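WARN  no MSA supplied for this record, continuing single-sequence
INFO  ligand: zinc ion
INFO  echoing inputs
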Amino acid sequence: MISIPPSLAPAKEEALSLLRQYWVETPPVSFTKILRGLGLSLIEKDFVWDTSNISWFLDIENNTIYINASDNFQRRMFTLAHEIGHFLLHKNILAREPGKYELVYRSQQIEWIPDPIEQQANCFAAHLLVPKTMLDKYYHQASIDQLTTIFWVSKQVIGYRIATEY
Ligand SMILES: [Zn+2]
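INFO  complex generated
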């Protein structure tokens, strides 16, 4: 088992407390109540800026998360969770430095993003989508492929969660 660094513990706790607050107890995690409760709007659209590889976009002033509709479903789930993490954990930083964390790129991988803010949002997202209490119920019976279907996440996210729990 790999321990998550102490700097990421608050992100994990924030994710678990959000699930408790909205009584989310079964996978795949539903965002409907969470978004409504947090006062966040979600807009899925095709990003056409060709610079891009843009997966999501947070408009902090209007409490709106934009998700790239052309991303696959697993990625949309993860980026939405990641963005909610930024909203809960980093709202003050985002308000001070608008634009700084608005964009995330597909090439970024969960394990090695050097920016601590991004690491926290990824840790939040992984624990929000695959909390241990839910993973415990399926881990011993389901294959990795089945787990990705049950939790609507990528193999990478399942692999990360298994490595950090067992
Ligand atoms: Zn981010």
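The two ends are 5 Å apart (CA to CA).
INFO  checksum written, moving to next record
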